[in-house]
Design a protein that fits this description.
Number of domains: 2
Oligomer: single chain
Number of strands: 0
Shape: elongated
Number of helices: 7
Strand content: under 5%
């Protein structure tokens, strides 16, 4: 049960940025709806007073400000990403080639070690069971033996790792 929860947790954590983006978009949409209501009220008031040409100018200005704001936000995001990449490049210039290569595998290394551990344990279980057939005469004995080796904590760590690495692929835009 714990392994299922941790797998689900890995999936949810990998999708957390997209979830936060969703709530930000909802807040932006609410703000845009309020602006649209105000614009409609202004349009009605201007139409009552006969300022139709002024209304068109105001609409144009509002759209122009919205486009400038979106462009500035996109530029700020691009600059932030470029700044982070430039920082990484600067740090990597002064490090050895081995460190520069290893930086790309820091997070996967934990996964590699854990998977190699599980493969080693599987090989050990098979060899031990083969060399001591009196210990595991039934399938129930084998299941008890593997439950001792593969604890729920270990399976939940594996589920979290797999959920994070492979679950995050569905959240990314294509």
């Amino acid at each position: 049960m714990l392994s299922l929860i941790s797998t689900l947790g890995g999936l949810l954590i990998s999708g957390l940025p997209k979830l936060l983006d969703f709530f930000q978009a909802k807040a932006d949409q609410k703000h845009e709806q309020e602006l649209a209501k105000l614009a409609n009220q202004r349009d009605i008031e201007m139409a009552k007073e006969g300022f139709l040409a002024q209304q068109k100018i105001e609409e144009f200005r509002t759209e122009q400000v919205a486009m400038q704001t979106q462009a500035q936000m996109a530029q700020a995001d691009a600059e932030m990403t470029k700044g982070a990449q430039d920082h990484d490049k600067e740090v990597l210039k002064h490090s050895s080639k081995w460190v520069a290569n290893y930086i790309g595998t820091v997070r996967p290394t934990v996964t590699y070690l854990f998977i190699f551990e599980l493969i080693g344990i599987n090989i050990w279980i098979a060899a031990y069971g083969w060399s001591h057939p009196e210990l595991m005469s039934t399938m129930d004995d084998f299941i008890k033996f593997t439950d001792t080796v593969f604890t729920t904590d270990e399976m939940s760590m594996l589920g979290g790792i797999i959920g994070f690495w492979f679950g995050s692929r569905n959240w990314q835009k294509k």
